[in-house]
User: What shape does this take?
Amino acid sequence: MSLKGKVVLVTGAARGIGAGLAERFAARGAKVALLGLEPEEQTRVAERIGPNAASWKADVTSWPDLETAVAEVVEKWGGIDVVVANAGIASTGFVRSVDPKAFEKVIEVDLLGVWRTFRVTIPHVIERKGYLLAISSLAAIAHAPGMANYAAAKAGVEAFCNSLRAELRHHGVQVGVAHPTWIRTDLVTSADAHPVFGKLRGSMPGILGKTYPLETALDDIERGTLRRARTIHVPRWVGGLKLLRSFLPPFVELGAKRLGLAQADAEALRDIEARGARESAVVGHGGRAAIEQD
Assistant: This one.
């Protein structure tokens, strides 16, 4: 698929994967609509790209925000060919002690935000027989402790896209889902700095704990988008792990015991007592911006 002259809408486009993809798509001749909750940062991205980019402040959990932004994108450029539902946040915390609002906000943004983004844009993408891509995660396949909400949301994104793909095939629309592992973004570096959960992630064994450069994700997702791929694995070994997913939960449980989860559980309670449940849970600029919407 050539992107020259195509209109691409990217959510969560202020930083990381979203901003990087927007720049790459524009370099291929696309007109890029950037949607997200950090307008100043997003405007800087649009200004770097040039006249073929424009920024809209929009919360992917808000129907009015999405409807208004999408209508303005279509009015400005005539339609939408590609949608990348990239907006996503994370929190840290164990289910028994995590801040409830932070826990539920992750599911709302990461899962319901994808559904709402796609629902509002689907009529325009059908009109152009385009492509929808949702950013899921390795967490949809390997479900680590301390990430219950994130894993559930990202697994839901994968299931949602698999159903939607069949529904839209006869319209000439293709649906893809990307599964990046740990990528060096604001979200991951912020989580790594957490006094409890940063240590847990740092002790994850082998490739499961390895952090990859942002360019790795951008290369693979850009290639997948050009192929209108149904699945994109970042890097490729993530696809192999999918074949073993039914065997993974017992190994995760054994690994959690080896990593000292009981001690981390107690440390998490102390961190909550010291900093408050909300502050202990929120990671990344995007997560903080999403929480502050309520």
Notes: The chain has a mean pLDDT of 91.
